[in-house]
Design goal:
The complex is a heterodimer. By secondary structure, chain A is α/β, with parallel strands linked by helices. Helices cover 27% and strands 18% of the residues of chain A. In chain A, strands 7, 8, 9, 10, 11, 12, 13 and 14 form an 8-stranded parallel β-sheet that branches. In chain A, strands 1-2-16-15 form a 4-stranded antiparallel β-sheet. A 4-stranded antiparallel β-sheet of chain A has the order 4-5-3-6, covered by helices on one side. In chain A, strand 9, helix 7 and strand 10 form a beta-alpha-beta unit. In chain A, helix 7 runs parallel beside helix 11 and helix 8 (250-262) runs parallel beside helix 9 (285-296). The longest helix of chain A has 18 residues, at 392-409. In chain A, 54% of the residues are buried. By secondary structure, chain B is mainly beta. Chain B has 3 helices and 8 strands; from the N terminus they run H-E-H-E-E-E-E-E-E-H-E. Chain B has helices spanning 3-19, 44-51, 189-193, and strands at residues 28-38, 56-67, 71-88, 97-117, 125-143, 146-167, 170-180, 202-211. Chain B is elongated. The chains are: A alpha/beta, B mainly beta.
């Protein structure tokens, strides 16, 4: 079966130009669509992996210490041998050590072998990362490479006790009437949803946007199929505040925020993050008040900056206590559509479908699962596939997912979560915070480290 | 039992032992060992963030030389170890949150000092001392198997007050004081957030010395 590409350019732009409260998703390119779930050409994937440059794993040493050697002595030996950065195995007293400047890896191995504490030392070879998900399309998720997702997952993968409320067009999270649960949400945990239009718990997606956004946050991962989500062990609370055309109201969104804030499960509210991949130019006090209640309840609120390449950023991203997220492409250059200005806080990879900077033959969008929006417009919500979509809508949920991981790691205060992400962001553009990039591109693994006493 | 309680019990026991000892005599060469609690109270917010304000246990070994009845000169080396967690705080006025990554912090101090003995007051001899030296410190974090390190060496200054009793060749003493290690930290980590740069703090130690009568 040959994969085919369907491009749905312009749909998001059309929505944005027509809607008072448009979603910020921009446009999508479909990987393949046969029978809903498909297998990407494995040969093509292999070719791509072969072309990708790998770090020089041979330029470092593996050293294993004798059982009588404790960690402290082992680390002293590493220092004495001229080792620089050292990574200890989680299971044994085995270290992977990079040589200090001026020392080669073979020389480092020789030095280790001369130490009586060392059981053996050898040059490293090509190995797999600590955690590399086996999802078949993971290799096409360039945004996860930029974020250093594998190192991030070594530290934190999320937990169902920490939930992200996705206020959007709904989510394909259940089989209900004509709606179907997306196949790659198999192990994703969903909390009871809320539909502000029908005032019931069925927050089903009739557009595609909310499903794609939720897939970025918590797509089932390491399940041998499809794509990966960033905080994939976190829970998703689907809240439908935008209709089938991606239109909503300030009051509806405020209602959705209040639902997320008031939710209780076993006496506690697992919602620690609210994702708002939506925006508009009008300021609403009702929405501001609802967001203030959320932040006061310890919930981090994240919103997309907007897709008009204009300043200032849209509301609700423009509120002071909302993390406003803009978009960069694969080169870490501001995406041409991404709104900017004094209210912009952080950047995440939202992509640019007109580019193919990694030369993989695919447009540089964010690849996640959703259903065919054309079929949805005809009342069919079961034609699932994997779509490249770009927009600040795709950038914001990456920040929301990181916020969920930080909450799980122990940071309880939204202000601290924002400050940590900003402090550890990769500074882009002019030095320091600027209006084009805010504080810069999020670096999840760095944020999850926190701070030591002096470093 | 917390370290603070353990320290209190040790100090109380040591004090009781002191009360039964005979008065001290100055003069001559001797060696001493010490154990006690040492804080980073000069960077209190940093200490609270990383160590939950728990003091570190310090062990030390020293040589001293008594000159006459009033003066004593010493050379001490000490090791202080503390365990905590990496943390984060939004700004200097905010509380810190622990992130669960274990952090170990050690200091090795070398100090020369001069003490003035006030003579016997009742059964004990009080004294006042000042000292200076170097501290070599190391910080080590384990973040899901990745080891992060930081280290440095800084000058150290300290002032101490204490009292002791001598019983034959044995000297028993209690000592408290404060150490200053200025500008050792504060350019990164949580100490930068809290704008604290001094690695010193108050301490209390029990000492046991041996010297000729």
């Amino acid at each position: 079966m040959r994969p085919r590409i369907l491009v749905t350019l312009g749909l998001g732009l059309l929505f944005e130009s027509l809607m008072p409260f448009p979603w910020s998703g921009r446009s999508g390119a479909r990987v393949s669509a046969d029978e809903g779930i498909r297998v990407l050409d494995a040969a093509a994937l292999r070719l791509r992996e072969d072309a990708r440059p790998h770090p020089d794993y041979h330029a470092r040493a593996i050293v294993s210490f004798k059982d009588s050697v404790d960690d402290r002595l082992a680390e002293r030996c590493v220092e004495e041998a001229g080792g620089g950065r050292a990574t200890r195995s989680s299971f044994t007293r085995r270290y992977v050590v990079e040589p200090m400047a001026g020392l080669s890896a073979p020389e480092l191995v020789d030095r280790f072998r001369s130490l009586p504490e060392v059981a053996y030392a050898e040059l490293d070879g090509v190995v797999h990362a600590h955690f590399s998900p086996n999802d078949s399309l993971f290799a096409l998720q360039w945004h996860l490479k930029i974020l250093g997702a594998e190192r991030m997952w070594d530290i934190q993968k999320g937990d169902p006790t920490v939930a992200v409320a996705v206020l959007d067009t709904g989510v394909a999270y259940e089989d209900f009437g004509p709606f179907r649960k997306a196949p790659d949400f198999g192990s994703t945990v969903f909390l009871t949803g809320f539909n502000v239009f029908t005032h019931d718990a069925h927050a089903n997606d009739d557009n595609f946007h909310g499903t794609h956004v939720s897939s970025i946050i918590a797509e089932s991962t390491n399940n041998g199929a499809g794509v990966a989500g960033i905080a994939y062990q976190s829970a998703i609370m689907p809240v439908k505040v935008l209709d089938a055309d991606g239109v909503g109201s300030n009051s509806g969104i405020a209602e959705g925020v209040d639902y997320a804030v008031s939710f209780r499960q076993g006496g506690v509210n697992p919602v620690r993050v609210i994702n708002l991949s939506l925006g508009g130019p009008s300021r609403s006090q009702a929405l501001k008040d609802a967001i203030d209640r959320a932040v006061a309840a310890g919930i981090t609120v994240v919103a997309s900056s907007g897709n008009d390449n204009l300043s200032p950023v849209d509301y609700p991203a423009a509120f002071d206590n909302v993390i406003a997220v803009g978009s960069v492409d694969l080169r870490k250059v501001k995406a041409p559509y991404s709104n900017f200005g004094a209210g912009l806080d952080l950047m995440a990879p939202g992509g640019d479908l007109r580019r193919d900077d990694n030369a993989d033959g695919r447009p540089d969008g964010v690849l996640q699962q959703t259903f065919d929006p054309d079929a949805a417009s005809k009342g069919r919500y079961d034609d699932f596939a994997y779509y490249f979509v770009t927009g600040t809508s795709q950038a914001a949920p990456q920040v929301s997912a990181l916020a969920a991981l930080l909450a799980r790691q122990g940071i309880k205060d939204p202000r601290a979560i924002q400050a940590l992400m900003e402090k550890t962001a990769e500074d882009l553009g002019p030095m320091g915070r600027d209006d084009q990039f805010g504080h810069g591109l999020i670096r999840p693994a760095e944020a999850l480290k926190g701070l030591g006493l002096s470093k | 039992m917390t370290r603070a309680r353990l320290g209190f019990v040790l100090a109380a026991s040591f004090g009781a032992a002191l009360s039964s000892a005979v008065p001290a005599r100055a003069g001559g060469l001797g060696i001493a060992v010490e154990v006690g609690l040492r804080s980073l109270s000069n960077s209190a917010d940093t200490e609270k963030a990383i160590f939950d304000s728990r003091s570190g246990v310090g062990l030390g070994l020293g040589l001293f030389y008594g000159r006459g009845e009033r003066w004593r000169f010493g050379l001490d080396v000490r090791h202080i170890g503390r365990d905590g967690e990496r943390a984060f705080a939004a700004d200097r006025t905010s509380p810190a949150f622990h992130l669960g990554h274990p952090l170990n912090f050690t200091m090795n101090q070398g100090v020369v000092s001069a003490a003035y003995l006030f003579g016997k007051i009742g059964p004990v001899s009080p004294y006042l001392a000042i000292g200076g030296g170097l501290v070599s410190w190391k910080e080590r974090s384990d973040i899901a198997g990745l080891i992060e390190r930081a280290a440095g060496t800084s000058p150290l200054f300290e002032g101490r007050v204490g009292f002791e009793r001598q019983q034959g060749w044995l000297r028993l003493g209690l000592e408290g004081g404060i150490t200053f290690v200025p500008n050792a930290i504060g350019v990164g980590g949580i100490s930068q957030v809290y704008e604290e740069s001094d690695l010193g703090g108050v301490f209390v130690v029990a000492k046991m010395g041996f010297s000729r009568r």
